[in-house]
Amino acid sequence: MASLGLSALLASRPVPDLTARDVYVSGPPGMTTAVLRTVREPGVRKRQIHHERFSLAG
């Protein structure tokens, strides 16, 4: 099974009312940045986005 990027995943399974929802994201910096960029493209406002970045100890 091929892996989809986040933009492709949203395009293949769109959320019709995404801009009316709050979005919660938690994860490593690279992933969080990608998700934030992707949900901002269709017009989700900053006040609707709640995020937390973390790094794995190692």
Description of the molecule:
With 58 residues, the chain is an alpha+beta fold. Helix content is 33%, strand content 17%. The protein has a two-stranded parallel sheet. Helix 2 links the parallel strand 1 (23-27) and strand 2. The relative contact order is 0.23.
Short précis:
The protein is α+β, with helices and mostly antiparallel strands and 58 residues long. The chain has helices spanning 6-12, 29-40, and strands at residues 23-27, 49-53. Helix 2 links the parallel strand 1 and strand 2 (49-53).
Features:
58 residues; alpha+beta; two-stranded parallel ribbon; 2 helices; globular
What does the secondary structure layout of this molecule look like, with pairings?
Blueprint: H1 6-12, E1 23-27, H2 29-40, E2 49-53
Parallel strand pairs: 1-2
The count of β-strands is 2
Strand residue content: 15-25%
Distance between the termini: 30 Å
Shape: globular
- Order of H and E elements: HEHE
Number of helices: 2
Largest beta sheet: what is the strand line-up? 1-2
The helicity comes to 25-40%
